[in-house]
Amino acid sequence: MALHPDFPLQTERLRLRPFTRGDVDGVFAYRGREDVARYLFDPPLSRDECALAIQQRATQTGFFEEGDRIVLAVETAHDGKLVGEVSLIWRSVEARQGELGWIFHPDHHGRGYATEATNALLDLGFGPADMHRIFARCDARNEPSWRLMERLGMRREAHFREHGLFKGLWDEEFYYAILRDEWLSLRHV
Question: Which of 46, 58, 69, 82 could link 89 by a cystine bridge, Cβ 3.0 to 4.6 Å?
């Protein structure tokens, strides 16, 4: 199933839209930080690396085949300030499964933006994308991320202990997931 949503996606306080070349400085403001990169696969990115990442992300706006991703800039609706990004990856066509991800600038933590933006992507995944299950994962030490997953109604399905080396240390990773029926029951309460 192909899916190319109409953008932007609007929430009460946010606008989720494709990335543009004008987003380089906004992305560099958070992706260039060591505290943001701590739990990401990438090290802090240079401004040039952010520009290259945005070129790639600007085309990641729909699903055509397994492995495709939708990666969106998250900006505040009232002033258009870039506060982070969210992603939904089509992990399995046959099993109708996706993976949810997010990165937000620490200056905007604690305002509910990540919850609001990821709710919108779950609505997209379980609505027009017709996914059956969506999962998310994070480093077990990244408490804000796993707390977000719990706020979304996701359940912890796995705790992988020392399953791989990550930035020179043994990695502990949590997997959370939610099924379409569970999501719909939460949204229609």
Answer: 69
pLDDT one digit per residue (tens) for the chain, 189 residues: 689 999 999 999 999 999 999 999 999 999 999 999 988 888 999 999 999 999 999 999 999 999 999 999 999 999 999 999 999 999 999 999 999 999 999 999 999 999 999 999 999 999 999 999 999 999 999 999 999 999 999 999 999 887 776 667 778 999 999 999 999 999 875
- Show the beta-strand stretches assigned E in 35-154: 69-76, 82-92, 97-104, 133-139
Amino acid code (one letter) for 126: F
Sheet with 155-160, side-by-side order of all strands: 9-10, 14-17, 69-76, 82-92, 97-104, 133-139, 173-179, 155-160
Domains of the chain in start order, with CATH, are 9-133 (3.40.630.30)
Tokens, residue 119: 């709710």
* The pair of three-digit structure tokens given for residue 113, joined into one six-digit string: 């933006």
Q: Specify which residues 103 forms β-bridges with.
A: 85
